[in-house]
């Protein structure tokens, strides 16, 4: 018999977890957040992405740098993809499917890496629908990590209907689907669907996002969801019924501000200087994330609306690939001098949201932005554009959180007055008091790091109990 001390106890086993996020900042960053929590527990992480994406990530704190290894796989060139485009923000929305085709070509080098390094688990994203089959063949356990919350996943449906791609008309997406057994108003608005569909180029890969999601879910051993049952109790229950497999919350995985110290250091100096001059809670931060963009006329209404609100604002405008001419309406910056600041390009968002002058956040409602804004108690003003952003807006609005900029139901148009009223309601008007209170209350939930640590402990217990038979020892 082996002496007890020499026997490997499952509960002591150090895991080696590979991470393979989709090529988008809004995906790479939360995959890195969960990697750090695993590394803090002494586990080993191989974080796999392309060179430019790895370069863009915040630097690792020194105590974690030996536990997280970045594995850089060059992205093969693909027609329609400008050179060095490696992330969704480098590519116009209309060419996103080409980026997915290039991403699919990573299957071979990734398989080689997995064969060589034999991780216990691989945690992957929705786009690599081919990965579970590879992992199964290599005897590696696999978890799908969803950066969409539980209600959005439930709305999308069970894997069988995702794979079937059953919903075809825009109207199908504006109705509560039959698999939701309780009352819900979490549906898309007509314009949120039509714009999305119109903007998507012909599917060069032959695999729709719905099918990618379907296989990623159905062939996983477990699903991890970036949310928590305290916030979405009925949706987590339903998700387990729909998926018929283990579903684990990860909590919200709020960013750790100190980890962002180096993020945009030079830009931050100017931004901070401006924010320092503003009153506490007075500024609305405006950003529509890394993928969404507005037509020129809506951008002009947004600008005019901010101006009319008379509320101080900091507007981070995305550098849109392949868009010509200035995005900012003529004369706007001169007119708002003293009221607002516009920055075109990448900004250190977490640092901005953390600054005490910021009170509100006009957001497209991407899930990272929601987590970051509410994690600091900032009042959200919703202007959803793409993907599941409309569903996130309904979820939060249904809980009394935030204010949605009213838009024409059919074509999605809005005017400057609706922007100005929404901003004033969130930031100043007495009628917005409850919204400001509710946003502050959410800080305890969305900004709760301990809760994510607790959920990651549960993931680790599960992964250890099911992990592969590779032997690796602590220490
Ligand atoms: O100048 C910038 C712009 C963005 N960010 C960060 O980049 C992330 C952006 O994520 P998110 O707010 O979720 O926006 P998108 O990247 O546009 O979101 C995509 O990914 C999300 C997660 O899957 C989905 O919820 C969205 O619908 C989808 O468009 C956040 O962490 C931001 O802090 C910066 O730090 N600086």
UniProtKB/TrEMBL annotation:
Coiled-coil region list: none
Keyword list, A-Z: Glycosyltransferase, Transferase
Pfam families given in the database record: UDPGT (PF00201)
GO molecular function: UDP-glycosyltransferase activity
Family: Belongs to the UDP-glycosyltransferase family.
Name used for this protein in its record: Glycosyltransferase
Organism of this sequence: Eruca vesicaria subsp. sativa (Garden rocket)
Lineage start: Eukaryota, Viridiplantae, Streptophyta, Embryophyta, Tracheophyta
